Amino acid sequence: MATNSGLFSRNFKKTFPVAVRGEGCWIIASDGRRFLDASGQAAVVSIGHGVQEIGRAMAEQSSQIAFAHTSQFHSAPAEKLAARLLALAPANFRNGGRVYFTSGGSEATETAIKLVRQYHLETGQKERYRVLSRRQSYHGSTLGAMSVSGNVARRAPYEPLIADWGHIAPCFCYHCPFEKTFPQCELACADDLQAHLDGNKKSDAAAFIFEPVVGATLGAAVPPDGYVARIAEICRKNGILLIADEVMTGLGRTGKAFAVEYWGVEPDMILVGKGIASGYAPLGAVLVSARVVDAFERGSGAFMHGFTYQAHPVSTAAGNAVFDYLESHKLFERVNPAGRNLREALTSLLAHRHVGDVRGLGLLLGVEFVNDKTTREPFPKSENIAEKIRQACLEENVLTYPTQGCVDGLRGDHILLAPPFTISPEESAQIARAIRSALTKVFQV
Ligand SMILES: Cc1ncc(COP(=O)(O)O)c(C=O)c1O
């Protein structure tokens, strides 16, 4: 256990095991303990841990040319990966779209916010700057990304530093903010975007950013049919861009290359991160549609933005090697069957009096714990149920991703499960057993 190292750890009151090795869905710590990685380390690891080919591809690239600044050079791995991502994306990206690589999801969100602003300048709409988003959402931890994120607890300490460009209602049927039921609700949560635009200064609205399936903050909440299409229609009608944040859902996690494919919409930008390099290198990207690229090409020709490490040759080499592995092992195809398996194992937990909901898409699944199943009443925040479940699962050597706040930004406890796509039926059963045993421990009194 590392207690007093020089690392500025995530939590000084906790001790952390030291990870020394990975094998498939397992992480091995320095004390020999083996942990089943049920959350893919925050929905990152798709191909599994310890795949030797990825390290070899990175070493090979590093031995050729490890770094060349993007103001002076392009690199072959970055160009190759951009082409592969665009080929997977919706049709409006395939002919004339481009990819802006970053070192992670938050940088991708920052980049998108600035792309939106400059797009409107390039097209002569100088007033537009507000990027609208939803409550109980998460788009990253830098200040721009936090401005569009809507999680009350995560925003609270930084309120003086972050902008408020406008948040609409989340799309969350299990705790509908309008206390309605689908389909009688007629998608009131999507219409909240139009209501916001009508009730505020419309001419400065610039874009709407959303997670197609809300990961960290709502525990894999999937929108009902028609929601994403209605949102896209409102964006088009009001001249604002649509950004799909697929940092968690992209690259196969939900069973399609990009989750927006489920609803057939064509956003103006798609953000990716996490699964793009499966954790083997820090990498993220903004996929920019042809329409937005065209505005830059016809306009100033240069985006006023940049990171030293954007489109890093070694990180994009890792991305290509991960892509090769996903393709050669047919891992995209594994997500839906493996997801059904894990979901089935988790569904048995619904018999417990405090398991309110099991939800999700593909291998992005959530389990929500409630105080009262009939009313869906959450536990008081102070009981810290999600964290207690995480701790009890850890005692069973199973790693989960807990979050509080899904109901109103403060209350509401869930864990997120997003294992590598290689998860076996036996490992899925082990995850469900660990959660069952955690429930017994946490709710024994
Ligand atoms: C939907 C979404 N967007 C953005 C981010 C931020 O990505 P990163 O932590 O790589 O900066 C995350 C991270 O959890 C995320 O889930």
Description of the molecule:
By secondary structure, the protein is of the alpha/beta class. The chain folds into two domains: 19-51 and 333-442, Aspartate Aminotransferase, domain 1, CATH 3.90.1150; 56-328, 3-Layer(aba) Sandwich (Aspartate Aminotransferase, domain 2), CATH 3.40.640. The chain contains 14 helices and 15 strands. A hairpin with a 4-residue loop joins strand 2 and strand 3. Helix 3 crosses helix 11 (313-328), helix 8 packs parallel to helix 9 and helix 13 (385-395) crosses helix 14. The model has no long low-confidence stretch (mean pLDDT 97). The structure holds pyridoxal-5'-phosphate. Pyridoxal-5'-phosphate (PLP) binds at residues 42, 104-106, 109, 138-140, 211, 215-216, 245, 247-248, 273, 284.
Average pLDDT score: 97
Which strand-content bin applies to the residues?
Answer: 15-25%
Low-confidence stretches: none
Ligand roster: pyridoxal-5'-phosphate
Number of helices: 14
